[in-house]
Design goal:
About 50% of the residues lie in helices and about 20% in strands. The chain has about 400 residues and is α+β, with helices and mostly antiparallel strands. The protein contains 15 helices and 12 strands. It has 3 domains: about 55 residues; about 130 residues, no CATH class; about 220 residues, MetI-like fold, CATH 1.10.3720.10. A hairpin with a 2-residue loop joins β7 and β8.
Length: about 400
C-alpha cells in the first residue's frame, strides 16, 4: 500500500516537473522580450547576452566633470579591483626583457607608454633581431630598476584610477576589463515608445476598434445564433448552410471588392472601415447556434407559457447560460481585432496617424528604431500584454461544461 502511494506521488511530481519545464520553455521568449524592453540600447548588445537588464555603475571623482564608469581591473600581481576609467585609447607597448641569447622573455612582460621609455643608444639606437626584423631596444623602469626590453606588441588601453585613492592608477585593456554592473530597469522606454510616432493615438484607436468589434460581433452572433437555433421560418436550414459556407471563402478573395466598396462609400483612411466590415461573422453565429441548441427546450417552453417574450427569453435565460460561449467568442474576436494587420495596411495609409492602429505603428517603429531593439520590444510588449491578460481572464470558461452551464441558467 505504501509502495503504491509512493509511486503515485513520484508520478505526480514527475508530471508536474515535466509540465513546469515545458511551461518555462514556452515562457522564455516572452521573458526575453519583457526584460529586453527594460534595457538600455548598449545593454541589448552586450556579450555574452544577459536576461536581466543591467547598467554600468559610475562614480564621480574630484577633477573630472563627467561620471566615470567602473571596471574590474586585474593588476600585474594578479589581484582584481574595481577601478574608474578616466582615459581611453592610450597607445602603449608590451615590453619583454632580453635573455642572454638575445631573445625576449615573454613570461615577464610589462606594459608601458612610449613616453615613459627611451631608446638605448639615442641617435644610434641599439637593435636586436626579432622575428626576422631589427627592432630597437628600450630602457624600461621596472620596480625602480632599469632593464633593457623590446616591444613584442602594440595595443590601445585605458587608464584606470582607484576611486578610494585617485593617486593610484594603472593601465589595462578596456575590453578585457569587465564593467561593474547592477540589475536595474528602464520603464521610461515604454513612455518613449508611447510618445514616438503617435503611438499613443494608435494604441487608443486599436482599443476602440477592438472593443466596438467585440461588442458588434457578440450582438450579431447572439441574435443570429438564436434565430437559427430556436426560430422556425421557411428556408432556415438552407440559409444557415449558405451563411456557414462563407467561412470557406479566403479573405484574399474579398480584399479587392471590399476595398472598392470602402472607396465607393468614402471610408478609406477612416475608422469605420476598420470596424463595420467585421461586425458580422459566420463563425460566431455558428458557435452561438450550436451552444443554444444544447439548452433544454423545456426551459424555453416554460418561459413561453409564463408569457415571456422571445427577447426576454434571450436576455434572461439564454445569455446567462451562455457565458462560456460568449467568453470564448469575445476572446477570439478580441485577439483577431487587436492583431489585425493586413486589412488596416490596405485601407489606411501609413502616414495617416489619425486612423493608425497598433500593428501599423509597430511596423513603422521597426524601421525607425532599428538601432534600438529595446524600444522595438517595448512596443511589442505593449501590443502583447493586453491580449495576454484577456486570454488569462477568459481561459477558465473554455473548460466549463456547456451542458451544466445550460442547466444552471
Amino acid at each position: 500500500m505504501a509502495k503504491n502511494r509512493l509511486l503515485r506521488i513520484l508520478t505526480v511530481l514527475t508530471s508536474y516537473g515535466v509540465l513546469t519545464f515545458f511551461a518555462l520553455v514556452m515562457l522564455f521568449p516572452f521573458l526575453v522580450m519583457l526584460f529586453t524592453s527594460l534595457k538600455t540600447p548598449a545593454d541589448t548588445f552586450s556579450y555574452p547576452p544577459r536576461l536581466l537588464p543591467r547598467e554600468q555603475i559610475t562614480v564621480t571623482l574630484p577633477g573630472y566633470e563627467r561620471p566615470l564608469p567602473l571596471h574590474l581591473v586585474e593588476h600585474e600581481e594578479g589581484r582584481t579591483q574595481p577601478m574608474a576609467l578616466v582615459e581611453d585609447n592610450i597607445r602603449v607597448g608590451i615590453f619583454a626583457p632580453l635573455q642572454p641569447d638575445g631573445s625576449p622573455d615573454r613570461s615577464r612582460v610589462v606594459m608601458r607608454r612610449f613616453g615613459e621609455v627611451r631608446v638605448v643608444g639615442g641617435e644610434d639606437p641599439k637593435t636586436v633581431l626579432l622575428d626576422g626584423a631589427e627592432v630597437p631596444v628600450y630602457e624600461v623602469n621596472v620596480d625602480g630598476e632599469i632593464q633593457e626590453m623590446v616591444v613584442i606588441s602594440r595595443t590601445a588601453v585605458g587608464r584606470f584610477v582607484n576611486p578610494d585613492n585617485p593617486s593610484e592608477s594603472v593601465l589595462a585593456n578596456v575590453r578585457l576589463s569587465p564593467p561593474v554592473t547592477r540589475i536595474t530597469a528602464h520603464p521610461e522606454n515604454y513612455l518613449t515608445v508611447v510618445n514616438l510616432l503617435g503611438f499613443d493615438r494608435a494604441l487608443t484607436n486599436t482599443a476602440l476598434i477592438t472593443i466596438l468589434t467585440v461588442i458588434g460581433q457578440l450582438t450579431t452572433s447572439v441574435l443570429g445564433g438564436y434565430a437559427f437555433a430556436r426560430l422556425k421560418f421557411p428556408g432556415r436550414d438552407s440559409l444557415f448552410l449558405v451563411y456557414l459556407g462563407t467561412v470557406m471563402v479566403p479573405f484574399v478573395v474579398l480584399i479587392i471588392p471590399l476595398y472598392q466598396l470602402m472607396v465607393a462609400i468614402g471610408w478609406v483612411n477612416s475608422m469605420p472601415a476598420l470596424i463595420l466590415p467585421w461586425l458580422y461573422t459566420a463563425y460566431g453565429t455558428f458557435l452561438m447556434r450550436q451552444f443554444f441548441i444544447t439548452i433544454p427546450r423545456e426551459v424555453e417552453e416554460a418561459a413561453l407559457i409564463d408569457g415571456a417574450s422571445r427577447l426576454t427569453i434571450l436576455t434572461r435565460i439564454f445569455l446567462p447560460a451562455s457565458v462560456p460561449a460568449l467568453a470564448t467568442l469575445a476572446t477570439f474576436t478580441f485577439l483577431y481585432a487587436w492583431n489585425s494587420f493586413f486589412w488596416p495596411l490596405v485601407v489606411v495609409n501609413t502616414g495617416n496617424t489619425r486612423a493608425q492602429v497598433l500593428t501599423l505603428a509597430l511596423n513603422v517603429l521597426r524601421g525607425r528604431a532599428s538601432d534600438s531593439p529595446n524600444l522595438i520590444l517595448a512596443g511589442a510588449a505593449i501590443s502583447i500584454i493586453p491580449p495576454t491578460i484577456v486570454f488569462a481572464l477568459a481561459q477558465r470558461y473554455y473548460v466549463e461544461s456547456v451542458a451544466s452551464s445550460g442547466l444552471k441558467g
